[in-house]
């Protein structure tokens, strides 16, 4: 996890928030560093994590997590991490025979045209429903990323239904957290993706929006991050106001600074 | 005007339009809180948030007046509970056709959720045929095409479109919002008004005058207290020098000659008519008085 980002979000692994839906959004840049942050954050916080990884392989996330001080194989072994490797599951759905009994493949919607994401939701619900022997803190669902579900042929409403049920189960019933990454583009012709992005923005308690610089590539400033709190009624404080910071991604850390205050230009 | 609508002047279909930049659920909750405090029976059909979250800002004394119909936890029947799960969306339609238990106010949070899953003509027909005294619906304007928004606005008696006043300042609670109110009166008169307001959870909105900034730039704490003051910020007010030029100063400046503009008098002063060159030859110089160009056949 990135310590500076925890300070900006007023978050601590000793006291993770509960019942929140965090939307990670990126435009003109790659916001996956936020996914790695929240994965390592919640594992260090002692939460049970269900990670629906549709973009990269397990080894990719493990390499980055090790740089942040977390071992994903160890977390899987002790039952803290449930990892759905989408790249491998897609292969099994398309090229392997269906098992005669047992749970359907969470990604069976790829083979079945016109279906919904109920099987994927059931996988999430089964993974995060606590058992009697579990001693973990609140359950957490992490999805990387939602936009690829549209590319796999799902309708926007199906994606929104899936997220809706995840929120209802994980946030409301189990008092856990949901973190979802979605890609967006300004002036995009992809109306379905923009519909999903806007709908998720309306449902979220916190939006972290990573944007590439409008002026183009910069060696010392990799982008800017907007922190936009939303959600239930709270007394207005400085924490409730949107804030914008610029950031630079390093090998094992991400540094954040006020706009125009990069060390390279001071 | 917004305060009067919240206090009970709004009748028929009341459309609260919000966007990603400026959420409208808090205003909807203030409508509900005001109706409950008046002793009216309120039926809330919640699709987007849980009952605990919606009731969070309501006065506990007025809570019994509010009946929450939970369509959030299992609207599509995925949990397989049976008839109870399947009736989530149908109950909303039934709630509009016949007032359940003599309801005075019906609240839908949100209409966008229904419009994304039900045919819009059916939804519009249900809204047009509703027989309730007051129906408050929350609509996310950035999720629907302009044509559908126009149809819904034509069905509504009151439309409250919310917008943020500056970059992102409209998102937080207690910050300044801009409401464009459109009300169609019974006699056919149409009233439109734009007003700024602030909203604290559980309380009615408080109208604020249109922010006008002072000539001096606001300090950081002034900006937080009066978020609209920076809109008319004058950057020249506290400079240590005067960037302006008076008429006399401009005339003097125009009359000054430019440094490299060679006027005739300046040329004369530069070009010296007299003067000689004194040269002492070095020992190695080969001085020849003959003209070196004499042998040219020109």
UniProtKB/TrEMBL annotation, chain A:
Protein name: Elongator complex protein 6
Organism from which the protein derives: Alligator mississippiensis
Key words of the record: Cytoplasm, Nucleus, tRNA processing
Gene behind this protein: ELP6
Subcellular location per the Swiss-Prot or TrEMBL entry: Cytoplasm; Nucleus
Secretion signal span: none
GO cellular component: cytoplasm; elongator holoenzyme complex; nucleus
Pathway the protein takes part in: tRNA modification; 5-methoxycarbonylmethyl-2-thiouridine-tRNA biosynthesis
Keyword Membrane found: no
Keyword Nucleus belongs to the record: yes
Any Pfam family: ELP6
GO biological process terms, semicolon-separated: tRNA wobble uridine modification
Record family assignment: Belongs to the ELP6 family.
Organism taxonomic ancestry: Eukaryota, Metazoa, Chordata, Craniata, Vertebrata
From TrEMBL, chain B:
Signal peptide: none
Localization: Cytoplasm; Nucleus
Family annotation (CDD domains): Elp5
Record's keyword terms, sorted: Cytoplasm, Nucleus, tRNA processing
GO biological process, alphabetically ordered: tRNA wobble uridine modification
An example Gene Ontology CC term for this record: cytosol
Top-level division of the source organism's lineage: Eukaryota
GO molecular function, one term: tRNA binding
Disordered, as annotated region: 274-298
InterPro entries: Elp5
Acidic residues bias locations: 282-298
Pathway entry: tRNA modification; 5-methoxycarbonylmethyl-2-thiouridine-tRNA biosynthesis
Protein family (similarity comment): Belongs to the ELP5 family.
Entries under PANTHER family matching the protein: ELONGATOR COMPLEX PROTEIN 5
Protein name listed in UniProt: Elongator complex protein 5
Organism field: Alligator mississippiensis
Organism lineage string: Eukaryota, Metazoa, Chordata, Craniata, Vertebrata
Gene name for this UniProt entry: ELP5-1
């Amino acid at each position: 996890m990135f310590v500076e980002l925890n300070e900006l979000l007023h978050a601590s692994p000793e006291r993770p928030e509960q019942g929140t839906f965090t939307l990670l959004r990126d435009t003109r840049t790659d916001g996956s560093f936020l996914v790695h942050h929240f994965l390592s954050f919640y594992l260090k916080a002692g939460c049970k994590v269900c990670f629906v990884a549709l973009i990269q392989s397990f080894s990719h996330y493990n390499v980055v997590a090790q740089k942040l001080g977390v071992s994903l194989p160890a977390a899987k072994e002790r039952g803290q991490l449930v990892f759905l490797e989408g790249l491998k599951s897609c292969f099994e759905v398309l090229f392997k025979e269906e098992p005669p009994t047992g749970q359907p493949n969470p990604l069976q919607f790829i083979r079945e045209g016109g279906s919904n994401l109920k099987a994927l939701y059931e996988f999430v619900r089964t993974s995060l429903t606590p058992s009697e022997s579990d001693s973990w803190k609140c359950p957490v669902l992490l999805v990387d990323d939602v936009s690829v579900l549209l590319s796999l042929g799902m309708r926007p409403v199906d994606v929104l239904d899936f997220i809706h049920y995840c929120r209802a189960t994980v946030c409301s019933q189990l008092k856990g957290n949901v973190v979802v990454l979605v890609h967006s583009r300004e002036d995009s012709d992809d109306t379905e993706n923009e519909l999903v992005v806007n709908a998720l923005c309306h449902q979220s308690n916190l939006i972290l929006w990573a944007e590439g610089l409008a002026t183009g590539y910069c060696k010392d400033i990799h982008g800017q991050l907007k922190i936009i709190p939303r959600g239930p009624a709270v007394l207005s404080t400085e924490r409730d106001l949107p804030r914008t910071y610029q950031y630079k991604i390093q090998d094992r850390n991400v540094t954040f600074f006020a706009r125009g205050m990069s060390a390279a230009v001071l | 005007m917004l305060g009067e609508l919240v206090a009970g002047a709004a009748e028929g279909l009341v459309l609260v339009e919000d966007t990603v930049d400026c959420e409208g659920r808090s205003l909807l909750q203030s409508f509900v809180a005001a109706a409950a405090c008046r002793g009216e029976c309120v039926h809330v059909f919640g699709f987007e948030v849980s009952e605990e979250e919606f009731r969070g800002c309501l006065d506990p004394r007025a809570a019994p007046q509010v009946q929450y119909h939970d369509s959030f936890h299992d609207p599509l029947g995925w949990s397989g509970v049976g008839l109870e799960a399947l009736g989530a969306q149908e109950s909303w339609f039934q709630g509009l056709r016949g007032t359940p238990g003599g309801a005075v106010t019906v609240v839908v949070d949100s209409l966008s959720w229904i419009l994304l899953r039900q045919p819009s003509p059916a939804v519009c027909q249900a809204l047009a045929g509703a027989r309730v005294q007051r129906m408050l619906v929350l609509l996310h304007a950035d999720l629907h095409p302009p044509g559908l928004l126009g149809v819904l606005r034509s069905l509504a008696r009151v439309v409250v479109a919310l917008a943020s006043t500056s970059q992102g300042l409209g998102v937080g609670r207690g910050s300044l919002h801009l409401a464009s109110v459109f009300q169609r009166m019974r006699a056919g008169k149409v009233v439109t008004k734009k007003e700024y307001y602030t909203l604290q959870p559980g309380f009615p909105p408080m109208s604020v005058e249109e922010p006008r900034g002072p000539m001096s730039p606001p300090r950081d704490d002034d900006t937080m207290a009066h978020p609209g003051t920076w809109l008319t910020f004058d950057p020249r007010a506290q400079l240590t020098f005067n960037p302006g030029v008076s008429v006399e100063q401009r005339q003097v400046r125009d009359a000054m000659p430019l440094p490299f503009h060679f006027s005739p008098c300046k040329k004369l002063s530069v070009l010296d008519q007299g003067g000689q060159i004194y040269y002492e030859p070095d020992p190695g110089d080969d001085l020849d008085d003959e003209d070196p160009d004499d042998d040219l056949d020109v």
